[in-house]
Amino acid sequence: MRASAGRFAPTLLLVAALAGCVAPAPVPEPATYLLRSAVQDRTSTTEPHFTLGRVRVAWYLEQLGIVLETDAGEIRPARYHRWAEPLDRGIRQLVADLAARELGQPVAKDPERAAADALRVDIVVDSFHGTADGAAVLDAEWTIFGPGSPSPRLLHRRFSSRASLAAAGYPALVAAEVRLLEELAVLLAADLATAAATGPSAEE
């Protein structure tokens, strides 16, 4: 037994040395993305007459991984491509800035910072992800409420759109998702202007 152990000792030492030389593969650093606009958030001396209320996202979007739908119809959040903040917060920031640009006046991101007679809009996002065929999809709806308690419901709209990716990869997916939110903000701003001008109207 001792002779056998001595015979295999060099082999065992070689295996141990080789194992020590094999380093584990490095774990990639996650890439993080912010939903922000180039539009400057100008501070106004007057209280905004428009404000975002609730901004809710579907349950599957309540995590930081950017979501992609596979060929098999599975929804998978990315491990190394992530939102830098909760998605509902990023959507709130971006949509408020873009809608303010369209309206030509500020849109409060918090109802407490708006005028007492401000119109409030609640947004629900049902889907917001990339598809297996190279597109981004956004399905949402919003409701505009007038001032008062209880707040009268002035207008409701459903929104559904998709945008093709300009290239492969998550940066292109995020860029397409930003374009979809820009499209949503344009319609939302138009609805806010209509509700402010006409008051209660027929729902669409």
Task: Characterise the protein shown here.
The protein is of the alpha/beta class. 32% of the residues lie in helices and 29% in strands. It is built from three helices and seven strands. It has a four-stranded mixed sheet, with helices on one face. Helix 2 (87-103) packs across helix 3 (170-198). The model is unreliable at 1-5 (pLDDT under 50).
Topology, number of strands: 7
Distance between the termini: 88 Å
Name the average pLDDT: 86
The neighbouring-strand order within the major sheet is 2-5-6-7
Q: What is the overall number of helices?
A: 3
Instruction: Using the alpha-carbon principal axes, give the shape.
Output: elongated
The residue fraction in helices comes out at: 25-40%
Beta-strand residue fraction: 25-35%
Could you give a short account of the major beta sheet?
4 strands, mixed
Instruction: Using the CA coordinates, give the radius of gyration.
Output: 26 Å
SSE order, one letter for each helix or strand: HEEEEHEEEH
